[in-house]
Specification:
The complex is a heterodimer of chains A (about 110) and B (about 110).
Chain A: E1 5-7, E2 10-13, E3 19-24, E4 31-37, E5 44-50, E6 53-57, E7 65-68, E8 75-79, E9 88-95, E10 103-104, E11 108-112
Parallel strand pairs in A: 2-11
Antiparallel strand pairs in A: 1-3, 3-8, 4-5, 4-9, 5-6, 7-8, 9-10, 9-11
Chain B: E1 3-7, E2 10-14, E3 19-26, E4 30-38, E5 44-49, E6 56-58, E7 61-66, E8 71-76, E9 85-93, E10 100-102, E11 106-111
Parallel strand pairs in B: 2-11
Antiparallel strand pairs in B: 1-3, 3-8, 4-5, 4-9, 6-7, 7-8, 9-10, 9-11
The chains are: A mainly beta (about 110), B mainly beta (about 110).
Chain lengths: ~110, ~110
């Protein structure tokens, strides 16, 4: 399967713990996006990369959130000191720069107790 | 502020019915509008529309953009239970970031 993959698919953690999610984009894609989605809402933009450069980070993203794409391939999203309000589906998508279509991974569902 | 509004928020139909989902937008420097289908997982791409009046079609699904009315419709004919999903509309502005602005989605239920 050459689609976008995410790991883990589900994560349950206790409030205050750190969590890290991984996204492997479609290999040819140079753009990688992170979104957060809660029930009944559309995806909320968090950040995106072109190759290894992080080009934009949402103002909604607190400093507890950090993302990296060190080699321009896979990306990690880390949430430090998780809060219950961080419970959501975290979606990764990839695409080509200059093309709007984004292809989504299966998501990581986070539950913070 | 850029926004995308979808209607209705939810609807339930019987198998075989035809449905029309609406998406309207207010976006500076519109570039394209995308439709996605989301079941109990991540959204899957359906269509991308950039030009007014040109229908995109895939099987029983079709979509068209009206730039004058700042809107798009997604039609599904002869609905099946497998069409039950949330249909999301997203709009891309012509800025450098290519960030998608998402609507809240229309939840479609198709009863047998």
């Amino acid at each position: 399967d050459t689609g976008v993959s995410q790991d883990p698919r589900h994560k349950i953690t206790k409030r205050g713990q750190n969590v890290t999610f991984r996204c492997d984009p479609i290999s040819e894609h140079n753009r990688l996006y992170w979104y957060r989605q809660t029930l009944g809402q559309g995806p909320e933009f968090l950040t995106y990369f072109q190759n290894e450069a992080q080009l934009e980070k949402s103002r909604l993203l607190s400093d507890r959130f950090s993302a990296e794409r060190p080699k321009g391939s896979f990306s990690t999203l880390e949430i430090q000191r998780t809060e219950q309000g961080d419970s959501a589906m975290y979606l990764c998508a990839s695409g080509f720069a200059g093309q709007e279509t984004q292809y989504f991974g299966p998501g990581t569902r986070l539950l913070v107790l | 502020e850029d926004k995308v509004v979808q209607s209705p928020l939810s609807l339930v139909v019987h198998e075989g019915d035809t449905v029309t989902l609406n998406c309207s937008y207010e976006v500076t420097n519109f570039r394209s509008l995308l439709w996605y289908k989301q079941e109990k997982k991540a959204p899957t791409f359906l269509f991308m529309l950039t030009s007014s009046g040109i229908e995109k079609k895939s099987g029983r699904l079709s979509s068209i953009l009206d730039k004058k009315e700042l809107s798009s419709i997604l039609n599904i004919t002869a609905t099946q239970t497998g069409d039950s999903a949330i249909y999301l509309c997203a709009v891309n502005n012509a800025g450098n970031n290519r960030k998608l602005i998402w609507g809240l989605g229309t939840s479609l239920g198709v009863n047998p």
